[in-house]
């Protein structure tokens, strides 16, 4: 059976807003952060009241769920978070649980409801998160004192939060193609592409402070590597050879440097690549008397402007993320303006 903390992770996966959303509103929520019960990174909630938000009490269990949402790798840290990160995670989690409670209260004020059929589906989906009925029962007992109605209430709460945020944020964050094109036209420098080269490398490097015999062996290896590299006929063949014999760190990626800005490459590499055609393998490129590299040019990308068709989707995504952050922040500020929030 899973540990108590792992079960909380299951609940957090369904009943909390995403960590991205948490980060977007954290600076706009009230900075009421409960002090840790201990100096260690672990945090064991017991249902202790922490905050009162317009009369609704939030406990350390609510805080724990938000901390898991912000740091989903907690299971890899024995149920806690690294001590160096705990203060920031606790701060963001406390702020986010206040924001979610305010959103929930606003949804109730607007008389929003969840249709029964949707509630049934959500409840059934949640139960499927557990490995067995016994594990689910353990969770209900530990988190809600055996009261399954409270589980449904928490699920309904999560759905109402999602629904209101969809109305106030998601639906208003859609970016049209026309908006994206206007941004593209007003910011041409953002879409200027520098000259770049996509290439692979095989490097033969002697040890530091090599002896005469070691230098001789390195030169022999370089000549043999060049012979093998010249015999390759494709990206994959060259890459597999790089994995096998190259001494540089790119060997684990089949020697692939992807598209690299020419201004950030060594002059010797730029000179060699500029004289090559795609799919061509260079001779030995020497950076000094001892270090040798073999290059395979995959593409030479000249400087120029990217077209709107190339960047349309990424621009719309970028602008939508900006809109989302602005709308969420404004909504958080509006809800917090007249809220009564007390530290218990």
Q: How confident is the prediction overall: mean pLDDT?
A: 85
CATH architecture of the largest domain: Orthogonal Bundle
* SSE-based structural type: alpha+beta
Spatial strand order of the main sheet = 5-4-7-6
Q: Using the alpha-carbon principal axes, give the shape.
A: elongated
Number of DSSP helices?
12
Can you put this structure into words, describing what you see?
- The chain is an alpha+beta fold.
- It has two domains: 4-175 and 322-343, Porin chaperone SurA, peptide-binding domain (Triger factor/SurA peptide-binding fold, Orthogonal Bundle); 195-302, Chitinase A, domain 3 (Roll).
- 53% of the residues lie in helices and 12% in strands.
- The protein has helices spanning 4-15, 19-25, 60-70, 83-109, 116-127, 133-144, 148-168, 177-186, 212-231, 235-245, 267-274, 308-337; strands at residues 49-53, 56-59, 192-193, 196-204, 256-261, 285-286, 292-301, 304-305, 341-343.
- It has a four-stranded antiparallel sheet, with helices on both faces. Strands 2-1-9 form a three-stranded antiparallel sheet.
- Helix 4 (83-109) packs across helix 7 and helix 8 (177-186) crosses helix 12 (308-337).
- The two termini are 35 Å apart.
- Mean pLDDT is 85; it is low at 1-41.
């Amino acid at each position: 059976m899973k540990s108590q903390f792992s079960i909380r992770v299951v609940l957090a996966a369904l009943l909390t807003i995403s960590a991205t959303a948490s980060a977007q509103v954290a600076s706009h929520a009230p900075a009421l952060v409960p002090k840790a019960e201990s100096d260690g990174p672990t945090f064991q909630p017991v249902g202790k009241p922490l905050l009162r938000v317009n009369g609704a009490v939030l406990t350390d269990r609510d805080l724990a769920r938000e901390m898991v949402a912000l740091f989903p790798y907690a299971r890899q840290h024995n149920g806690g978070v690294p001590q160096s990160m705990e203060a920031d995670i606790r701060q963001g989690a406390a702020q986010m649980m206040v924001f979610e409670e305010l959103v929930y209260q606003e949804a109730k004020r607007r008389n929003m409801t969840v249709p029964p059929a949707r509630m049934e589906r959500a409840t059934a989906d949640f139960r499927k998160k557990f490995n067995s009925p016994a594990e689910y029962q353990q969770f209900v007992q530990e988190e809600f004192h055996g009261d399954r109605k409270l589980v449904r209430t928490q699920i309904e709460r999560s759905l109402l939060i999602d629904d209101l945020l969809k109305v106030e944020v998601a639906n208003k964050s859609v970016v049209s193609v026309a908006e994206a094109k206007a941004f593209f036209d007003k910011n041409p420098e953002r879409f200027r592409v520098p000259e770049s080269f996509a290439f692979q490398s095989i490097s033969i490097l002697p040890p530091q402070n090599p002896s005469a015999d070691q230098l001789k062996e390195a030169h022999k290896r370089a000549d043999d590597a060049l012979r093998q590299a010249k015999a390759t006929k494709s990206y994959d063949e060259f890459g597999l050879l790089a994995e096998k014999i190259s001494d540089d760190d790119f060997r684990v990626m089949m020697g692939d440097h992807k598209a690299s800005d020419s201004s950030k490459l060594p002059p010797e590499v730029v000179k060699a690549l500029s004289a090559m055609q795609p799919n061509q393998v260079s001779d030995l490129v020497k950076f000094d008397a001892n270090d040798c590299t073999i290059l395979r040019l995959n593409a030479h990308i000249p400087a120029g402007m990217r077209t709107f068709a190339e960047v349309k989707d990424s621009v719309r995504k970028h602008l939508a993320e900006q809109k989302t952050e602005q709308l969420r922040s404004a909504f958080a500020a509006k809800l917090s303006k007249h809220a009564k929030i007390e530290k218990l």
